Amino acid sequence: QVQLVESGGGLVQPGGSLRLSCVASGSIISIYAMGWYRQAPGNQRELVAQITSVGSTIYANSVKGRFTISRDNAKNTVYLQMNSLKPEDTAVYYCNSVPLGLSYWGQGTQVTVSS
Questions:
Q1: What are the percentages of helix, strand and coil residues in the chain, rounded to 5?
Q2: What CA–CA distance (Å, rounded) separates 92 from 86?
Q3: Which residues, in sequence order, are CB contacts of 74 under 8 Å at separation 6+?
Q4: What is the mean pLDDT of each run of 10 residues along the chain (115 residues)?
Q5: In contact, 57 and 98? CB cutoff 8 Å
Q6: pLDDT value, residue 101
Q7: The pLDDT value given to residue 27
Q8: What is the distance between the alpha carbons of residues 112 and 41, in angstroms, rounded to a whole number?
């Protein structure tokens, strides 16, 4: 059973940056496409960035040009660098496979963008 643990969230002012990490245990994730999802209060969970096993990336229009997803297969870890953060980026961020199915959801990491 793969376990995913997200970290790196916090409170940041608009325009600030954060780097999220997702560490997987229980299985090697290098063969899987992975993604970062987010869920804001009252909203459905949405996929904002994804990376294939060979490093190709796709972004939601809302984060394109501001967020960068990457992976370190040697560390079984996926990252999300978030720059130029906006209040509408406030959400709980989760990682998981794309498509879903690799693991249950982790606890996520809260990102709050506010002045």
A1: 5, 50, 45
A2: 14
A3: none
A4: 94 98 90 96 96 96 98 95 98 95 92 97
A5: no
A6: 85
A7: 84
A8: 12
